[in-house]
Design goal:
The chain is 35% helix and 20% strand. The protein has 173 residues and is of the alpha+beta class. Strands 2-1-3-4-5 form a 5-stranded mixed sheet. The model has no long low-confidence stretch (mean pLDDT 92).
């Protein structure tokens, strides 16, 4: 009997292929955005268009400066995959309202799957873009399926009850 690949896995596999275009030396992350079961945008971790990437420079500036992961994003050459997917939709004039984002990530080198959760900045962009769901790859020990589904409304409700900046630093979101 032929088994169809489950939809969330199918779309994460597509995001995985998108991630292979990443130009970050630390991670390979890809994102796709769907609306009404149709892919409307894609993005990967990479430097802004027409600029040199860390791959082309041959080093990661953040690693060279010993900047801890998850901090001082402004010193990174790359734009996050989630941000690039949102930007690419905007460049095409496509509305994201009501859409879903799939994010797949792996470590470099080695290719171990990451918990590809959107960062604080990406979460804010996802909310303002009107996306309703984010499906992220996770390590198998966290989910047998290899992914977790976030309801964007839960982020909004949480931030309505707590100060988004204060809690970010207090709890290390």
């Amino acid at each position: 009997m032929i088994k169809r690949l489950e939809k969330n896995k199918y779309y994460l596999d597509i995001a995985k292929v998108v991630s292979t275009r990443s130009t970050c030396l630390k991670v390979s992350i890809g994102a796709i955005i769907l609306k009404e079961d149709q892919i409307i945008a894609a993005g990967y971790v990479g430097s802004p268009r027409k600029t040199k990437s860390s791959l082309e420079h041959g080093f990661c500036l953040r690693q060279k400066l010993n900047i801890p992961s998850g901090t001082q994003y402004e010193l990174c050459r790359s734009v996050h995959a989630e941000q690039n997917a949102i930007i690419n939709a905007a460049r095409s004039g496509v509305s994201l309202l009501g859409g879903a984002m799939y994010v797949y990530g792996e470590e470099r080198p080695g290719g171990e799957m990451l918990d590809a959760f959107p960062c604080f900045i990406c979460k804010k962009m996802i909310i303002n873009a009107g996306l309703v769901r984010v499906i992220s790859s996770v390590r198998k020990e966290k989910s047998e399926k290899g992914y977790i589904v976030f309801d964007v409304e839960d982020w909004i409700e949480d931030w309505q009850q707590h100060d988004i900046i204060e809690d970010k630093y207090k709890y290390g979101e």
